[in-house]
Amino acid sequence: MLTVFVRSVLLYGASLLAMRAMGKRQVGQLQPFEMVVVIMIAELAATPMGGVGIPLLYGILPMAALVVCHGLITAACMKWQRLRVFLCGEPTVLMRGGVICEKQLRRVAVDLNDLMEAMRTAGVFDPSEVDTAVLEPGGTISVLPRADSRPVTPSDLGLAPVRDGLPLPLVMDGVVQHGNLTRGQLSEAWLRQEARKAGFGTLQEVLFMCLNTRGELLIQGKGRTDTSLVQVMLPERVVW
Asked: Would you say 48 and 55 are in contact if contact means Cβ atoms under 8 Å apart?
């Protein structure tokens, strides 16, 4: 029993490493040749896992070969566009100018229910509000609403909003994030000073501290349900 347990752990680890080497795509984003590799890796791991008499290398070595093949095919697809189109396909327009492309729907085996579901997923419940729908190579359907049905943006109103980028977590569960401090050109002394201003004696008492690109610092203490948001610098001083 111990042998089966150890073999299962080793094969599980090998499968994780193989999947990690393929990248971070979700299942719905896998290309056809990537889906084949995933299925084969699962089969290769299951066979030696259930048969103690089968050497582990009979499962691990084919996994390594599949990962190498996947890497070569991916590199080739990035270099040759025609090969990528042949293996992965290309986008297909299912709806153009508000008109459903019936021939394209039949060619890619997508029915009207699938198209309507994609519209609802995109937040459009009225088909008359859709301008374009595209079936992506990964199998998802992208929906573009008509111009008069899209949400109003600041540019539509002639506004120039302040830049809103990725906030920097500076303290997480009492641990200082030194990499983010360096990225924001901030010092730990400045961080401790801001924590004292918020009523915390040490940074270990802070659950979460985050600085956004508007120069606002969000602070929450451990065991507390309230937060504080204070302006600690001008937006022009933000450097990340």
From this structure: yes
Q: What is the CATH number of the domain that holds 105?
A: 3.30.240.20
Q: Is the pTM of this model over 0.85?
A: no
Residues 183 and 226 in one domain: yes
Residues 150 and 147: their CA atoms lie apart, in Å, by 6
The low-confidence residues of the chain, meaning pLDDT below 50, are none
Q: What is the pLDDT of residues 42-77, one digit of tens each?
A: 888 887 876 777 887 888 888 888 888 888 888 898
Q: What residue numbers bound the domain in which 63 lies?
A: 2-86
Q: What secondary structure letter does DSSP report for 149?
A: G
User: DSSP character for 231?
Assistant: E
Instruction: Specify which residues 142 forms β-bridges with.
Output: 134
* Burial class of 92 by CB neighbour count within 10 A (0 to 12, 13 to 18, 19+): middle
**In total, how many domains does the chain have?**
3
Are 145 and 211 within one domain?
no
